[in-house]
Design a protein that fits this description.
binds adenosine-5'-diphosphate, alpha/beta, four-stranded parallel beta sheet, 43% helix, elongated, binds 6-O-phosphono-beta-D-fructofuranose
Length: 320
């Protein structure tokens, strides 16, 4: 394979630039032409395709976001739109594609591969860590550390005022950001979509903790686990203690990737290009037990849910 391309799609994540850099430099090292596609699938169907060189990715490893830009492109689910993408690649003589993104992005990759015979390697890169076939996605670790910074700051003020705080974090339908940040930040309660919770029990436990002399409690809420204002109102009513709500929002999606995400990006990007060089079948790349793995797009959907129940229990044992 002589000519390949790379794109980033879906929500941006810290480490996307490091991933593009790994793809570009590995391709150039293998004497392949490498093209960058702007704005994910939206740019691909419009033919927003530019040649990249080693300098294109200079000074990028530490930057958050994605210099290729990203987009959501709902119309990409239609086969005729996918055909336009395949034609754009063919017009540039591009034989293989590396897509960097989350669950939706990998679905698009499967379609391009299944319906148009394009070799597409998928790199999991999303703060949500919501892909079951891989232990980690690029961007998750940095996002959790950013949330941790917020928890530390909230702790200072809530402890000073004897308050209950509720912090909502992202993750779509996955509770991993809340769980890992909750454990690392010493939160008392972690509410995730994967595990049912009982607000009456939580309220009574908060009340009892005040009687024991504990003056501050932190609840971390995954966005997919309920409505932050309704939960805060309910707990405040039941306990008689005001609950201060913070929605951390998009701050957790930006910032310089940390070591874990940069190294993962390097390993994934390198592997993706090696697979294209060897003309291997399309697949998604992941990591299991610190080993790089490849999984067919069909098998991604079959991977069992990977929520860490033990860590969830630890969060609540240590938080009380
Ligand atoms: P992420 O990749 O982070 O999960 P999205 O869910 O927004 O983000 O998906 C990114 C893009 O992938 C979508 O905007 C769309 O272009 C494409 N995509 C998502 N779902 C599908 C699907 N079922 N079939 C084909 N393409 C899809
Ligand atoms: O998938 C990443 C993510 O940040 C989710 O955690 C969140 O639900 C969503 O994207 C937000 O999307 P947008 O930036 O389009 O509002």
């Amino acid at each position: 394979m002589d000519r390949i391309a790379v794109l980033t799609s879906g929500g941006d994540a810290p480490g996307m630039n490091a991933c593009i850099r790994a793809v570009v430099r590995t391709a150039l090292n293998s004497k392949m032409d490498i093209y960058g596609i702007e704005r994910g699938y939206a740019g691909l169907i419009k033919g927003e395709i530019n040649r990249l060189n080693t300098r294109s990715v200079s000074d990028m490893i530490h930057r958050g976001g994605t210099f290729l830009n990203t987009a959501r492109c709902p119309e990409f689910k239609e086969v005729e739109v996918q055909r336009q993408a395949a034609e754009a690649l063919s017009a540039y003589g591009i034989e293989g594609l590396v897509v960097i993104g989350g669950d939706g992005t990998l679905r698009g990759a499967k379609d391009l591969s299944d319906k148009f015979g394009i070799k597409v390697m998928g790199i999991p890169c999303t703060i949500d860590n919501d892909l079951n076939y891989t232990d980690y996605t690029v961007g998750f670790d940095t996002a959790v550390n950013t949330v941790l910074w917020a928890i530390n700051n909230l702790r200072d003020t809530f402890h000073s005022h004897d308050r209950v705080g509720l912090l909502e974090v992202m993750g779509r339908n996955c509770g991993d950001i809340a769980l890992y940040a909750g454990v690392a930040g010493g939160a008392e309660y972690v509410l995730v979509p994967e595990i049912p919770y009982d607000l009456d029990k939580i309220s009574s436990s908060i009340k009892k903790s005040y009687l024991r002399g504990k003056t501050s409690n932190m609840i971390i809420l995954a966005e997919g686990a309920g409505n932050r204002d309704e939960i805060a109102e309910y707990v405040a009513k039941k306990t008689g203690i005001s609950v201060k709500v913070t929605n951390f929002g998009h701050i957790q999606r930006g910032g310089s990737p940390n070591m874990a995400d940069r190294v993962l990006a390097a390993r994934f990007g390198y592997k993706a290009v090696e697979l294209l060089k060897e003309n291997q079948d399309s697949c998604a790349i992941g990591i299991k037990d610190n080993k790089i793995i490849t999984v067919s797009y069909d098998d991604i959907a079959k991977a069992p849910k990977k929520f860490d129940n033990e860590l969830y229990n630890i969060a609540h044992v240590l938080g009380l």
